[in-house]
Amino acid sequence: MSMILFACVVRVRDGLPLSASTDFYHTQDFLECRRRLKTLALRLAQYPGRGSAEGCDFNIHFSSLRDVACMAICSRQCPVAMAFSFLETVWWEFTASYDTTCIGLASRPYAFLEFDSIIQNVKWHFNHVSSIQMESSLEKIQEELEFQPPVVLTLEDMDVANGLMNGHTQIHLEPAPNFRMEPVTALGVLSLILNIMCAALNLIRGIHLAEHSLQVVHEEIGNILAFLIPFVACIFQCYLYLFYSPARTMKVVFLLLFICLGNMYLHGLRNVWQILFHIAVAFLSSYQILTRQLQEKQSDCGV
Questions:
Q1: Residues of 130-169 as b/e, b for ≥16 C-beta within 10 angstroms?
Q2: Dihedral sign, CA of 179, 119, 152, 138?
Q3: Mind telling me which residue stretches traverse the membrane in this protein (predicted)?
Q4: Which of 38, 165, 289, 293 has its CA 20 to 30 A from that of 144?
Q5: Secondary structure (DSSP) of 110-128
Q6: Could you tell me the pTM of the whole model?
């Protein structure tokens, strides 16, 4: 019987499953373990980088670093060092294939479906290669585990911690709202590029003006601020488009106002077409921010 039965990659901050191996097991005990793995995935941010949840027939092992965690369901006979060596291998493969921006912008479960086959291949390798062939890598992991032991949980403790009694009756808990943004559109990407370009132009002109002002008079200070304030506003507009922020509408209005006033103040240093370009980009970015809706994370998107 295989020692590593199931594996998946999840995002630490919200437990969103990114990729998973093919599931060939459908026993009641295994499905119950899968349910508990899903529960644990939502709580990974509360635990150290490595940990195990022990049960009667199966163990859950997890290893996380930065915003990516790998999790596995293993048989009781699977050596702990082997399980964590497997998780470390999957983690390196995944982070080598996808950058942090791509991972952070993932908005739906199993967004990296093409990585499933790699997990499956690594799982097959660890299940069928003898421990003698993996001896060197297992020794390294074993030394790390002895120096810094993983946190040990029990599957029953996980149920109690999540308000479950006997694995069936759920005590009502009021979860904190968990939202994510809708996928980025092509027009949204264009607005980001234009916004970054405007921010760069404002920063370059502002620094250039400050460096070449031999005698900084009141008007020159105003011009420098009129370049730098829109620069900050453009960067903040990019942030508001990519990430959720409360009071978003009010922030968008203030940013748009700062950009418009700053460019109007620069009349004379910029021609009319340049001013209109910066203001048009600001309006486009504001529109994209306000029309990119929030979508609540589905409670039934399981691992």
A1: eeeebeeebeebbebeeeeebeebebbebbeeeebeeeee
A2: negative
A3: 184-204, 224-242, 249-266, 272-290
A4: 38
A5: TTTGGGHHHHHHHHHHHHH
A6: 0.52
